[in-house]
Amino acid sequence: MDLLDLAIYVLPPYVVAVFLFGVAYRLSRYVFLWKRKPSAPRRQKSFASLLVGLVKTFLDPLIIAAQKRKGDFIGGLIALHIVGVIPLIFLLGQHVAMFSYWLPFYSLLKPFAIPTSITTGSQSFFTNVLPASSMSWTFVNTIWGPLTIILNGDLLAILAIIGVSYKFGDKIVRALHKLPHLRLGDFIDLFLLLAILVSGFLATHHLPSPDIATYRLVLGTHILLAETLVAYLPFSKFWHFVFGYWYGKLHEWYDIKFNRGSL
């Protein structure tokens, strides 16, 4: 059994178990350690006002970031999250095939899978069509049509790597200037994510060597790093995307805009 077999056939149940334990731990800390403070009497607001307030609660930090922290907005949110990591994780053809092996219902997303590049499809459910010009390669025909120019693994991986590198560099600059709110975990999170992206890119292109042993080693390393991140996720700062942002914003809306009527 090599590293690839270990990562695919042995470790997933343990990774899921650790992840679920971490989720339960984080949620239980909030439920059992949260102390309710006295609040002002609830102000009555119309349903439309509450709905607008809910939308603004989620949009306000994005608008502020776009206005005042353009580097974080472009490098962190757009390049890293929206354009890079999220579609790579959930829609890249290889990932759809792997997730479908573990979770059969995930195969419903096969029609929406994105190819490795605009000229090479890595899964059988992509159909190559000849280009209208005399170029020597073929384009990949996907449900995304012209958007495949953007929605392909190579471009998204590069954008994500740029985004992670920017965030990593930003943390280093902050550390050199001895700014507050920096933890060792911040660097571990970003380094782990960067290693996942780079190893995945190398495995996709059969680098640094095309022989099967090297390919299995690089791909196994990529999957193992990804599993490490999943298991570590509830204990890392990345958990803010699930808990700190979505739940936190819902709590902010309920406490400030719904309960206190501050709209």
From TrEMBL:
Organism the protein comes from: Thermofilum adornatum
Keyword Acetylation tagged: no
Protein name as annotated: NarG-like domain-containing protein
Cited SUPFAM superfamilies: Respiratory nitrate reductase 1 gamma chain (SSF103501)
InterPro entries, per the entry: NarG-like_sf
Transmembrane segments: 6-27, 73-93, 143-166, 187-207, 213-235
Alphabetical UniProt keywords: Membrane, Transmembrane, Transmembrane helix
Keyword Membrane: yes
